[in-house]
Structure formats: structure tokens, C-alpha cells
Amino acid sequence: MCLLIFIKEIKEKECRMSIEKVKAYFETKGTADRIREMELSSATVELAAKALGCEPARIAKTLSFSVKEEPVLVVAAGDVKIDNAKYKACFGTKAKMLTPEEAQERIGHAVGGVCPFAVNDGVKIYLDESLRRFDTVFPACGSSNSAIELTVNELETYAAPCTWIDVCKGFSE
């Protein structure tokens, strides 16, 4: 029992450090005051939409993958799924998501709070076309109860993606 409590405390500390890292990043941009920390969990699209009072599609979910052993983030609208054929055409390999442990280690954020801000060096970030249909979206900020509302242009600026890609299905413009 003590070991489980110890592990839980370590995970909570890692999450706290992760959101603090994101806050520090947004401090440099003058927008840290826009980060919302909620009482309710925002660890899934549905929970985030409920906590923020918006439609699930406007949650900018950040999915973590391994592409040729390199960590990759794909930020997509909350109502879409990865289209395996499009993904393979884009990246030249099958979609392989990181495990929660790998995401924490390789991306720098725990699953439920993975975001495209203040990530570890070497992580490549891509924004999916599914996001372009919204004026504003809500990506997480490093913890399972945080988010920030950004215009799509702000998201592009702050996430500094490699490029925009089209690897999802389940929406129409």
C-alpha cells in the first residue's frame, strides 16, 4: 500500500511540474493568465468539453506517436479519429501510439495533459487540418485539469508545428 501511495505522489508531482513548465512557457508569451485550471478533470475530450462548457470537437486533443523511433505529436479536433491510410501516407509508417509511460518520458507530459507546449527537445509537432474549421480551440496545458483557449493562429504560433497535415477522419468542413 505504501508503494502505491508513493507512486501516486510521484505522478502528482510530475503533473504539477508539467503544468508549471507550460505556465512558464506562456509567461514568456504574456498569456499565462489565460490558462484555466479546473476542479473537474479534463483528461478526455468528453471531460474537457464538460469542464469547459464547449462542444467536444473544439477540444484540441494531442496524440503522441512514435515515428521511426522519434516522438511525434498530432494535435487534432476532439471529434476526429486517426485515418490509418492517411497517417501511413503522411509518415510512411503505421500509426503507433506511445504508451502512457513513454509519453511521460519522451514528450514530457502525462497522458490526459499532453499538449504541444513546453515539450521535450526533439519532439516533432503537427497540427491536423480538422482544427482549421474553428475560430478557437482548447488544448491541454500539461495536466489533466487544465486548458487554454487559443485561436487557431495562436495555436500555430505557440505550438510551432513542423507543418499542417491531414491524417484524420470523421469530420467535414
What's a quick, concise take on this entry?
35% of the residues lie in helices and 24% in strands.
Describe the structure.
- The chain has 173 residues and is of the alpha/beta class.
- Helix content is 35%, strand content 24%.
- It contains 5 helices and 10 strands.
- It has helices spanning 2-29, 45-52, 84-91, 100-107, 152-159, and strands spanning 35-37, 59-67, 70-77, 81-82, 124-128, 136-139, 146-148, 150-151, 163-165, 168-169.
- The chain has a 6-stranded mixed beta sheet with strand order 8-6-2-3-5-9.
- The radius of gyration is 15 Å and the shape is globular.
- The relative contact order is 0.21.
Short key terms for the protein model shown above:
alpha/beta, 6-stranded mixed beta sheet, disordered N terminus, 35% helix, 173 residues
In terms of topology, how is this protein built?
Layout: H1 2-29, E1 35-37, H2 45-52, E2 59-67, E3 70-77, E4 81-82, H3 84-91, H4 100-107, E5 124-128, E6 136-139, E7 146-148, E8 150-151, H5 152-159, E9 163-165, E10 168-169
Parallel strand pairs: 2-6, 3-5, 5-9
Antiparallel strand pairs: 1-7, 2-3, 4-10, 6-8
Gyration radius over CA: 15 Å
What is the element string, with H for helices and E for strands?
A: HEHEEEHHEEEEHEE
Which strand order do you get reading across the main beta sheet? 8-6-2-3-5-9
Strand content: 15-25%
Helix run count = 5
Helix content: 25-40%
Largest sheet: 6 strands, mixed
How far do the termini sit from each other? Answer: 51 Å
- What is the total tally of β strands? 10
Rounded average pLDDT: 91
Structural category: alpha/beta
Shape: globular
Flag low-confidence runs.
1-15
